[in-house]
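Subject: Predicted fold for DUF5686 and carboxypeptidase regulatory-like domain-containing protein, 825 residues

User T.R. writes:
Posting the sequence so we have a shared reference for the thread.
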Amino acid sequence: MHKVTTYLLLLFATASFAQIRGKITSANGEPVPFASIGIENTYNNTSANENGMYELNIKKTGNYTLVFQSIGFKTRKETVNVTSLPYTLDINLQDETYTLNEVVISNTENPANRIIREAIAHKKENSEKAGRFEADFYSKGIFRVENVPDKIMGIKVKEEMEGDIIDSTGSGVLYLSETVSKITFEQPNNLKERIIASKISGDDNGFSYNTALGTYYNFYNNYVEFNLKMVSPLANNAFNYYKFKLEGSFFDDNNNLINKIQVTPKRDKEPVFEGYIYIVNESWAIYAVDFDIKGYRMQEPILENLNLKQNFSFNTSSRIWAKNSQIFDIRAGLLGITFSGTFTHVYNNYVFHDHFDKNTFGKEIVYIEEDSNKKDSLYWQTARPVPLTEEEVKDYFKKDSINTVTKSPEYLDSLDRKYNKFRPFDIVSGYTYRNSKKHNRYSYDGILKIPTFNTVQGWTFNTGLSFRHYDSDEKKYTSFGAKFNYGVAEDRLRVNGWFTHRFGKVGTFYLTGGSIVEQFNANEPISPALNMISSLLFKDNYMKLYDKTFAKLSYGREIFTGLNMGANIQYLRRKQLFNNTDYVLIKNDHDYTSNNPQAPNDYTTPAFDTHNLMKADIGATIRFGQKYITRPDGKINVSTANYPTIALQYTKAFAASDSKYEYDFIAARTYYNTTLGNKGDFGINLKAGKFFNADNIAFMDYKHFNGNQTHVNSGNSNTNAFNLLPYYSHSTNDSYFESHIEHNFKGYLMNKVPLLNKLQWNLVVGYHGIATPNYTPYHEFTAGFDNVGFGKFRMFRIDYVRSYQGSGYVTDGVMFGLKFLDIIQ
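User M.O. replies:
I've generated the structure tokens; pasting them so everyone works from the same file.
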């Protein structure tokens, strides 16, 4: 009974706090979803919800002229005398009637093309009019799921979600949230947002991701960002991508002639929109857009369709057409599961500026106010411009009630008792003990992890123990633990441990130490899993290991926005290891190479003598144009600027058991990634370094380059590794210059080739090079295809590679990119 009463009160509050409210319907009585409602000649706007219900806040009673606008319907004005609040006004909208002048066959230009040319010619002017403003912003997002199966790949999915998220049919609301903020914007992309209120269904401690950041889509620009740069129908080169048809014209409430133009792609597979754009005659401003964005066109195969609607309102005083609402309807699917979502954005109370002070926009782009996620229901009833639907009210009520229960001490104790119960099988599978009140967690990893194989240790088994504590109030984090590694062929157990503590804004300390096996190239160019496959199936043991006993203390922090620095000092005892097994599963027609990377056929001579050494490192990373989001629980850096990143390093090796192992080393790196319009993504990574007094240093201290001899990689952007370079063939203790350049055309060329465009593959070209004093320069040239696969599963990449030493050809080969490798390794 108590729950029913609470629910009814919530519904009552939703209605009683409305100012002017009502329902918008069509001529046949159907709700008109997401219609725009505003007071004439102001920017006091709101939007109806998906059921046609609306609420418009006003400050006082009096006479108001309301404007109701929705794509496909006649704009309607209604003057009301509000004598008391709330005031109810239900509105019926009539279908828009379009007129089209008699078509005369002649050599004159298509009338739609003429209108679009005028809109393109005037887009800078129209964009600048609304290009600098302050406004109130509201966002609501709801994401649903349907047809959730009982199991996916043997994992019980429906059982875990049923009750809290989905019903017995496998349907329910996955995510519901709202945001209220104030935004300041200056074209083309200066945005500052102050979030006043944030609400997530079922989470009273989180912050909504529904913000203005990343959702300001301006069709006056040449490109509109949706995962990749989509070509705007008002781009300078729009006629290369679109066909336009004038479907008709109508007059709005201010006697402006509005032209409805159908937008059709010339080629289906390119990053283009389709639908309708409405252009105001004479001013050539955008009145509204209604576009469909197909998932395959933005290279998001799981996404089936995204419908985007924007409505603009006109103020006769400012003479500016300003966006008042923006609606997304999303539909996606995978493995038979359907996902759908609606995101509503309302822009309100515009204040336009001729210019802003130079300090208006800084590095902080979003500021989330303290306790913005603690606003009560009274606040939301007065601040929410779009009324909740019954589905949303139910979801808030259910999940917030569950959240209240699950955060109670009694529930946390009962949950801990449930999950902390020890079972005999936990010895094998692993065990975690929780203390939710104190935010502590103790974990044992078990011994069921998939073992790996290498020729030094044979089959290796791993487990670990750990402790974790996080204090959200003090923003402090502490964890420590130990990892255990046992090699069967070597018959040796190695143990290493770590301790990590973060002191809020002061920085983070790391203490690690113990005994491990490590690759001579500490960047680990070959993963244990891939090395195991190469060894057991082809008898190729590419991974070369040595024994490292160490203790290391590290510290890192952000000095200021854009500059991060870190330092460490470590003690090392390093010892050569040898092969201990010749085991193989399939191919056994040759011997394994030795574990000495410098002498693969010498099984007795060590690569180095056992020695002790101290090393100190200091490094800095500079991100030009770095911006950030300020949250009550910390700071999040956001890469929004089109600038390169620079990294600097200095290493000092000293106090060695033999002075020949001591050296100095300096290195620098710059990397840069950018999108070149709709012509794809360009990436470059340049590295350089120099050793001093390093003639006889240990081989693991050399500069090693990330080679590859397996013909398999992760299939991602390849600007940090080579494709056919043997792992240790060009290692150096002198100076070096390394370069990686890659351009992924993201379909720019392939989309224009008949038949090939149906594959939806992306052409990728690249170059990789090394220059050192001891070798003529090494080069690799690559050409291949990304986004390879079928349907919604595009997890592969294929590259053809040719390598040269100096001007001489070395070898060629095919590289297979498997994008799921990063998940399973």
